[in-house]
Design goal:
The chain is of the alpha+beta class. It contains 11 helices and 9 strands. The strands form 2 sheets. The protein has a 5-stranded antiparallel beta sheet with strand order 1-8-3-6-9, with helices on one face. Helix 1 (7-15) packs antiparallel against helix 2 (105-112).
Length: 284
């Protein structure tokens, strides 16, 4: 699935490629040793993250991916994402953020085509990546650009290869009807469409659609829809929305249903979550 990235700019870059200078662009590489649950958000820059330790779950544009040592993902300004870990647990994440100027022409085009998908590194691959990442962090600390572009190119090249190899088979087996269903849900999830509605939209029998959906995504239709709604509810609560307003905005028919579903997925009530986020934003 293509990402909403500037394809024209990517194509033009193949004709006239300009790489950054220290005065023009920013690249940062850092380690987050205590990464915990972070709500849905977007960036105005590109971001690459690799899980060095710990486990969790990543939501990228409504598709959920398990996170463990070696997991990595690439975020563009057109994406939204969030990740979660169990209460009391943490992940160590290697993070690289940079603007579009750091992508060479080929990588810009591949990103525009949506070909840089999440994947998992082997221990051997992770060792190579760790070496590059450490060198990149040191170059960033020196605030020089003489080697950062080359190191980032190498890092992206290795990760792109792993992503391509791991996702080629998935792409071959991917159903265009399921992709249409996911696109429909991205647009209509706040309306809480039932399985029959989405099955009818793509022209499938509900029972067949249900089985195909679970096979393709690893979770059932209702669970996937609830993940979307709860993720959005968390973002609204974190921004100060009232529990009742968030409940009905996210398509829950009653407060009791919202409370029950929210507690099931977040392990606390909406009010408790809202208070937790408020305290995190305004510590004593």
């Amino acid at each position: 699935m293509k990402r909403n990235f500037d394809v024209d700019a990517a194509s033009k870059a193949q004709k006239s490629e300009q790489r950054p200078t220290p005065a023009e662009s920013q690249l940062r590489a850092k380690i987050h040793p205590h990464a915990a649950t972070f709500p849905r958000h977007t960036h105005d820059y590109f971001e690459l993250e690799i899980v060095a330790d710990g486990k969790g779950q990543h939501n990228l544009n409504g598709t959920f991916y398990p996170l463990s040592r070696g997991s990595f993902y690439f975020i563009t300004p057109a994406d939204y994402h969030e990740f979660s870990v169990k209460d009391g647990e943490e992940m160590t994440i290697w993070n690289v953020s940079f603007d579009e100027n750091y992508l060479d022409a080929k990588m810009r085009y591949e990103v525009a085509e949506g070909s840089f998908l999440p994947a998992v590194l082997s221990e051997e691959e992770l060792a190579y990546i760790e070496t590059l990442f450490i060198l990149l962090t040191k170059e960033c600390e020196r605030k020089e650009n003489s080697c950062t572009v080359s190191l980032l190119d190498a890092l992206l090249c290795l990760l792109r290869r792993t992503s391509r190899l791991q996702n080629e088979e998935k792409t071959k087996q991917g159903s265009p009807e399921i992709q249409r269903a996911l696109a429909y849900l991205q647009e209509h999830f706040l309306e809480a469409p039932d399985l029959k509605t989405v099955a009818a939209f793509i022209g499938f029998h509900p029972a067949y659609f249900s089985a195909l959906f679970k096979k393709a995504l690893g979770i059932g239709y209702t669970e996937y829809l609830n993940h979307l709604r709860i993720a959005y509810a968390k973002s609204l609560l974190a921004r100060g929305g009232s529990v009742s307003e968030v409940c009905f905005t996210c398509g829950f028919g009653s407060l009791s249903n919202f409370q029950h579903t929210f507690r099931k997925y977040v392990l606390m009530t909406p009010s408790e979550y809202k208070k937790q986020r408020r305290n995190a934003s305004h510590p004593l």
